[in-house]
């Protein structure tokens, strides 16, 4: 089991690591309830949030999967843009502790980036590095923001002497706790939206705008 950098072992890191390392993408996960798209909004299978489907001149594909241990929805377009939401249930007793303890929430969000997300990408994409990270806040609350450089992490490819090669990806991440859910947002700009800039964008503006397109279910 992984631990956060603070040493605290939050709920189900085994479960969270499973989804983050891509096991659901490579091996499949048991299907749960199916979300849907209506009037440009995607509604999560759990009923806990909806989000405006990102728009692209190339069109946007929507994929989802998950089970009782974790879920994800993946939006992508042919220019290499990716918007992804991974969300995992927090046991009620832990949710109460996180709600009352901001340091505990901070330890989870920062620790998950450095102890789970980065090592996973480093395993699959050697040379992955964190270019920038910080805590950020807006009207939806506090979150941990990180920018990763992921060699070969883009869906876009270029031709080389040895064959097609995936381009480097600059990935923006946002990690936060909302009610009884832990969220990991990932955004990779496409070739026509800044993904091929000489200088990587280190601003949280885009991923925060993505989160601000989410509508969360009110607590009971």
Which secondary structure elements does this structure contain, and how are they paired or packed?
Blueprint: H1 13-20, H2 23-26, E1 36-38, E2 41-43, E3 49-52, E4 61-67, E5 70-76, E6 82-89, H3 92-100, H4 102-124, E7 129-138, E8 141-150, E9 157-160, E10 163-166, E11 169-178, E12 181-188, H5 205-212, E13 214-216
Antiparallel strand pairs: 1-2, 2-3, 3-13, 4-5, 5-6, 6-12, 7-8, 8-11, 9-10, 11-12
Helix pairs in contact: 3-4
Task: Please tell me about this protein's structure.
By secondary structure, the protein is an alpha+beta fold. The chain has helices at residues 13-20, 23-26, 92-100, 102-124, 205-212, and strands at 36-38, 41-43, 49-52, 61-67, 70-76, 82-89, 129-138, 141-150, 157-160, 163-166, 169-178, 181-188, 214-216. The strands form 3 sheets. The protein has a 7-stranded antiparallel sheet, with helices on both faces. It has a 4-stranded antiparallel sheet with strand order 1-2-3-13. Strand 1 (36-38) and strand 2 form a beta hairpin. The longest helix has 23 residues, at 102-124. It starts with 12 loop residues before the first helix and ends with a strand.
